[in-house]
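Hypothesis: this fold can be encoded by more than one sequence.
Test: take the structure tokens below, design a sequence, compare later.
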């Protein structure tokens, strides 16, 4: 933490984040002065892992009202403090992981489930290597005449991206500003992005991450990249 604040002295807030079952981050924003308190942990309800994509608790999971919505301790994931794409100069972000009362990993947290399966494979002498690729769409802020979403125009022109043009280098050039911003922010967050390609649909792009044998880091990086692109 001290080293991070020396490098980013203007940091005012830190987003502390848990990963839910839908691959979405849930958490809160705290003042940077409160960061040191996180060494002892902070608290979130177990129901954060029983939410649907809209943030509604699915009571049938048994982690909500049935349990009385108990808070559980969450501790920082070491090495996960990075600048946030929301405002990298003033806002940082850090991953949390939930633990039981005895300090053991909370068994239904997706990150803990993944780690448990990964360690089981390693114990069997199996060492998976993964590489994640993420695809996303750039959309015009203005909808079409019928109210539907539409692909964007090339910046500074009226040339709307309506054709496939898969692997088009021209498309990469047309949208270089936003793709370069994504790449710069990925480097700032130490996300190992390998390159961008224009995909099959209008306004669709793909960014690949490097192969790695660290399955947890691969998924952490993929979720961080997804958040970065959306912000």
């Amino acid at each position: 933490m001290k080293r991070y604040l020396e490098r980013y002295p203007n940091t005012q807030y830190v987003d502390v984040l848990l990963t839910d079952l839908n691959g979405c981050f849930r958490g809160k924003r705290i003042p940077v002065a409160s960061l040191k308190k996180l060494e002892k942990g902070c608290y979130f309800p177990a129901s954060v892992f029983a939410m649907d994509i809209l943030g509604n608790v699915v009571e049938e999971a048994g982690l909500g009202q049935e349990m009385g919505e108990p808070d559980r301790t969450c501790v920082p994931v070491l090495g996960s403090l990075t600048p946030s794409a929301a405002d990298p100069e003033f806002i940082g972000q850090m991953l949390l992981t939930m633990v039981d009362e005895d300090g053991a990993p909370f068994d239904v947290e997706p990150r803990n489930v993944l780690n448990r399966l990964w360690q089981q494979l390693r114990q069997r002498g199996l060492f998976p290597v993964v590489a994640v690729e993420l695809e996303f769409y750039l959309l015009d802020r203005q909808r079409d005449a019928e109210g539907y979403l539409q692909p964007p125009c090339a910046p500074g022109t009226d040339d709307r991206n309506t054709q496939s043009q898969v692997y088009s280098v021209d498309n990469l050039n047309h949208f270089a500003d936003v793709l370069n911003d994504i790449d710069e922010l990925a480097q700032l967050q130490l996300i190992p992005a390998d390159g961008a390609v224009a995909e099959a649909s209008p306004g669709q792009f793909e960014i690949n991450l490097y192969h790695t044998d660290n399955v947890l880091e691969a998924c952490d990086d993929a979720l961080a990249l997804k958040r970065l692109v959306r912000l």
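The mean pLDDT is 92. The radius of gyration is 20 Å.
Hypothesis status: open.
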